[in-house]
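Lecture notes, unit on binding sites. The following record was shown on slide 14. It pairs a sequence with 6-O-phosphono-alpha-D-glucopyranose.
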Amino acid sequence: MNATSRTRLNQTPEWAALGKHREQLGSSHLRQLFADDPERGTGYTLRVGDLHLDYSKHLVTDETLTLLRELAAATDVFGLRDAMFRGDKINTTEDRAVLHTALRAPREAVIEVDGENVVPAVHAVLDKMAAFSDRVRSGEWTGHTGKPIKNIVNIGIGGSDLGPAMAYEVLRSFTDRSLTFRFVSNVDGADLHEAVRDLDPAETLFIIASKTFTTIETITNATSARDWLLTGLRAGQEAVAKHFVALSTNAGKVADFGIDTDNMFEFWDWVGGRYSYDSAIGLSLMIAIGPDRFREMLDGFHLVDEHFRTAPAEENAPLLLGLLGVWYGAFFDAQSHAVLPYSHYLSKFTAYLQQLDMESNGKSVDRDGNPVDWQTGPVVWGTPGTNGQHAYYQLIHQGTKVIPADFIGFAQPVEDLLPGLVAQHDLLMANFFAQTQALAFGKTPDEVRAEGVPEELVAHKTFRGNHPTTTILADRLTPSVLGQLIALYEHKVFVQGAVWNIDSFDQWGVELGKVLAKKIEPVLTEGQGGEQLDSSTAALVSTYRELRGR
Ligand SMILES: O=P(O)(O)OC[C@H]1O[C@H](O)[C@H](O)[C@@H](O)[C@@H]1O
């Protein structure tokens, strides 16, 4: 379906039918929906690979799900999906294919962009990464002074940082614990300072990760890292080759920086930054977990790609999760979406999803540039659930907002957990199950009274319930399961962008601030050009200069 020929989303009969259905649903309570259907808890579940997905605690009925699927059909979600997998240039504002799925395609697959099969190049880079990772892991790759590498510092930002940094944390129990990994992203010098202050430059490898190799934060940090290294080694430019490698699509800029392009690991413009950590951008992760584990992770991604590509609508997990988000945004005025993992290792998971989701779907014009008058991407937020319970869960339970939430947990603790700590896992998971139960069913005033609570406190101790949650449960956190989870979210985001008719693969909204920062920097340093600033910014800049003694 051509975007231009498309009926505006909120003028489709399917949208109207959902609106009417929402009115009929009124304030129906999950308590009632569960009472009406004793099979609901087992019926509203899906299995994708190793992921057990329970969506029974959502404010939906069979009819809601049917109507949502009809909306997906009317907006041709599967048509756009097929175009993405085929390599069509569905990122129209940048005229690019969107082929992160090719990064985890098997060697024998054929996926063409502009008539060329990209799969052999993907595997050639993976092989080059594997060979390099093995050399670093075995100690064969030595630094300028002949010492083996012990520390790996990834310098990148956005998609060139969040993915590897998140995945390194998630898979920590699979990492080579004799190596130290650090991730530097912020242009605040404190980030690099804290990352390198206790490291020996002779044993340190910098991985400069930047799709464009023009991102000011990354190039600034990379330049400072090079100075730190060369000063520490008392060496000249010749030492760079053994201590710097680049991950990029831009060989010219890599060479300009002084990195040998033999030490560059390539990827392509059809990989979006926030969809890139399974490309060369994952090199630090591959060094940490080893090439075999990295491949297991790619297989996990691929498993869910295949599920999304082939599963019928009724069983298609990314479709379902995407549509549930559309439902709450449009018809419950939900503004945000919480992701609450019950695993310490997933501490950076939600931060990663923030870029994936909010940079993809934080748009307010459709594919043709017309303003949308329906909600698009939610604010994604959350931290590991047990900590959240003692902080912001109060608002989810008793506040005034509708906050759909994903709960992610694992049946087994990680394998290398100290034996004395294994018993804590049941307590962790008891909380995991208790919270979705409390959120769904709450506690009625009568239940509170029955506990002998004085009348004046009953309202305060009542839990309205009816808060929608998805539970995702897997046996254990493995590289494959991580790949499955990320692909699930990638495709969920895709589904929502398709329904909302927005380009989920551009990010024009990040540009303005970059341009203005470039103009403001000389005002801060030289004091010139301040008169062109608005009065608020001019006054702030002048106060800053005063405080800096300028
Ligand atoms: O990888 P790079 O080219 O350095 O880009 C790093 C990041 O910065 C940009 O501003 C984009 O908003 C992100 O999508 C991107 O991941």
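Take-home: Residues 157-160, 210-212, 215, 218, 273-274, 359, 507, 510 surround 6-O-phosphono-alpha-D-glucopyranose (CB under 6 Å).
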